[in-house]
Amino acid sequence: MKWITMGAAVLLIGVGSAVAQPPPPTYAPVPPPRIEVVPPAPAGPVIWQPGHWRWDGYRYIWIGGRYVQRRPYYGHYVAGHWRWAPRLGRYVWRPAHWE
């Protein structure tokens, strides 16, 4: 997943898809990245979860970014991203998680 910071509040976000949906067909390339304006953080310990493209079985739909509650003692936050699955011979979506 690509992340390029553009100023204090704008991110260029990579692409992705949802876990429960079937993988997109080979003829449906992932749309280009979108620029998101990150709003000021609400009070409390939060982390920005960037937006991503989700395949709904027919087309890609943009899921906007949002703030999520920071989880103490869980290490660091890993945003959702595409990952190559050699056994499947294709990329699969790995959802956001804490490590």
In words, what does this structure look like?
The protein has about 100 residues and is an all-beta fold. It has one domain. About 0% of the residues lie in helices and about 40% in strands.
Task: Provide the spatial order of strands within the biggest beta sheet.
Answer: 1-2-3
Characterize the largest beta sheet: strand count, sense, and whether it forms a barrel. 3 strands, antiparallel
Q: In whole angstroms, how far apart are the ends?
A: 17 Å
- Strand percentage lies at 35-45%
E-strand count: 11
Number of helices in the DSSP assignment = 0
Whole-number average pLDDT? 73
Helix fraction bin: under 10%
Overall 3D geometry? flat
Q: What does the oligomeric state look like here?
A: single chain
**Uncertain regions spanning at least 5 consecutive residues:** 1-20
* Helix-strand pattern: EEEEEEEEEEE
The Rg value, from CA coordinates, equals 14 Å
How many structural units, i.e. domains? 1
Structural category is mainly beta
What characteristics describe this protein?
11 strands; flat; 3-stranded antiparallel sheet; mainly beta; two-stranded antiparallel sheet; 99 residues; single chain
Question: Helices and strands in order, then pairings?
Answer:
Elements: E1 3-6, E2 10-13, E3 35-37, E4 46-49, E5 52-55, E6 60-63, E7 66-69, E8 77-78, E9 81-85, E10 90-94, E11 97-98
Antiparallel strand pairs: 1-2, 2-3, 4-7, 5-6, 8-11, 9-10
Short description:
This protein is mainly β and 99 residues long. The protein contains no helices and 11 strands.
